[in-house]
Amino acid sequence: MTERATMAEIAEAAGVSLATVSKVWNGRSDVSDRTRQRVEEMLRLHGYRGRRHWNTEPAGTIDVIFTEIDCAWEGEHLRGIEAAGHEAGVRVVVSSLDRGDTARRQLLQRLRAGRTDGAILATMSAAGPLVAALNRLSVPLVALDPVTRPAGDLLSVDAANFDGARAATAHLLRLGHRRIGLVAGLDELLCSRSRLDGFLAAHDEAGVAPDPRLIEHGEFDFPSGVVAGGRLLDRSSPPTAVFAMSDFMAIGVYEAARLRGLSVPDQLSVVGFDDLPGSRWASPPLTTVRQPLREMGALAVRTALGLADGGVLGTELVVRESTAPL
């Protein structure tokens, strides 16, 4: 074990749970003296310092910063964040920056006046003025599902976007589809590029050339899925299946098909990405790639507290009733 030991390794060495190590590290009183002494001995023995370097006293607080909170996607992250915060004995403070510079100023003023054990940058750029300001305050940061590739030593938590898109596309190819449309996200987003690479890789592995004319772009919401899906279905040679890079856009493709008198999956197979709670209640229930959104939120909390070192969590194809053989 080295100075880079995580709390998980300290817990194993001391023979206690992660939550117990976190309580000792954060100065909680609800730990027996004997257990506290054993954990503190392990912390000293292995030179554990965590990443809470900006303040020697624990705050018992984690800040979660969203660009905006407007759908079930963020809600799933928050469920995991809240559960992990409760387990670790810290409270969670959530901020949304959809009010622009005012929200940013208020957030920074609060952090300067008080303390936090770390900040989770949720679904936002891992660079920019806010990140620079937080770094100047020496706030430990972790990027949760960052929209750009994190720079330097910033730890991040992400999903296996490439693998998920490859699995979704391979599923459609195994069903016999050869003209597969893609409703992609914005090119500048890290997840969009990874999912596009997975889409192309599945075609390459199957020896099928994708048609670049069957790629449209949306903004991860229902209206853009309707528009992009309509453009694909109005082609002179339309696709027989569509992979949409989000569940919302996939449901938009449903609507585009309905407006044109097409039945899913009899005349058009559709696959989404996310597996949000409503996907199983769509008509028909949506085949989609499950992102472990709650697990990602929980791992982000543990990473901010020094319990873990971030990482990429696996995705899983969930086959329901929106796909069928060609």
From TrEMBL:
Cytoplasm as UniProt keyword: no
InterPro entries attached to this UniProt entry: HTH_LacI (IPR000843), LacI/GalR-like_sensor (IPR046335), Lambda_DNA-bd_dom_sf (IPR010982), Peripla_BP_I (IPR028082)
MF GO annotations: DNA binding
Pfam family, one: LacI
Protein name stated in the entry: LacI family DNA-binding transcriptional regulator
Gene3D superfamilies: 3.40.50.2300, lambda repressor-like DNA-binding domains
Species this chain originates from: Actinoplanes subglobosus
Domain HTH lacI-type stretches: 5-49
Keywords (A to Z) from UniProt: DNA-binding, Transcription, Transcription regulation
Signal peptide per UniProt: none
CDD domains: HTH_LacI (cd01392)
